[in-house]
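Query structure, 241 tokens:
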């Protein structure tokens, strides 16, 4: 009997049958990030904002959003009306839903729709004051704002730091996050919810600030912000378990 014609069908059938030997997914492993943003942290005043319609419409219905415009007074700087002049950082935490197919994705995919033209991307390692180390992705971009008719009205230089927080892991690489997700479902039989954390700041000439903000100044303030945010908003006892 010639077995060759039967080899491929047998292998396919064996592979499909092996699925029933794997643990069934269904247990949910929640992200280690705290979704409720603080009212203030390290001198930054958090002003909650709503996600855009585009953000809500792009991801699954069970996706959660926590976003804020964060302001911190620039020491010694007052405008012509006698008001203190603040720095501004925009922070966003997006918690994935239970469907992997409508889950979060890397920001490089959606930032162009928000007017960003990405000029560079690097990986950075950060450490909190308590010694907890985590990887972060640094993006440098130019963001063009438009009016209701789609006409460009202003362009700003922008720095963005982002990373993904799972149940017990942190990564700044979307592919690694996806592989971790698959491993959890296949090996551990659980669905891991991931949160995407990002913080952005303009630099150069910013309308409400008299002196230009250098890239180095923005970078330093943004890194300090991210480190403090990570220290306070992540349950580090879960990470690495």
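Result returned for the query:
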């Amino acid at each position: 009997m010639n077995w060759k014609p039967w080899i491929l069908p047998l292998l396919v059938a064996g592979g499909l049958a092996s699925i029933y030997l794997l643990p069934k997914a269904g247990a949910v492993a929640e992200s280690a990030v705290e979704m409720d943003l603080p009212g203030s942290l390290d001198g930054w005043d958090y002003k909650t904002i709503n996600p855009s319609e585009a953000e809500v419409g792009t991801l699954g219905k069970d996706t959660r959003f926590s976003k804020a415009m964060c302001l911190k007074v620039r020491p010694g700087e007052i405008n012509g009306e006698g008001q203190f002049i603040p720095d501004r950082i925009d922070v966003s935490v997006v918690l994935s839903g239970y469907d992997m197919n409508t889950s979060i994705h890397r920001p490089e995919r959606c930032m162009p729709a928000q007017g960003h033209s990405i000029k560079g991307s690097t990986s950075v390692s950060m450490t909190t004051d308590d010694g907890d180390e985590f990887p972060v992705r640094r993006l440098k971009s130019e963001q063009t704002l438009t009016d209701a008719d789609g006409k460009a009205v202003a362009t700003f230089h922008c720095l963005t730091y982002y990373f993904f927080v799972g149940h017990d892991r942190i990564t700044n690489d979307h592919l690694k996050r996806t592989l971790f997700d698959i491993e959890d479902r296949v090996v551990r039989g659980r669905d891991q919810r991931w949160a995407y954390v990002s913080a952005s700041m303009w630099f150069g000439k910013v309308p409400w600030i008299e002196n230009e903000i250098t890239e180095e100044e923005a970078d330093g303030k943004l890194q300090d912000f991210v480190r403090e945010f990570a220290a306070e908003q992540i349950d580090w006892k879960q990470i690495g378990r």
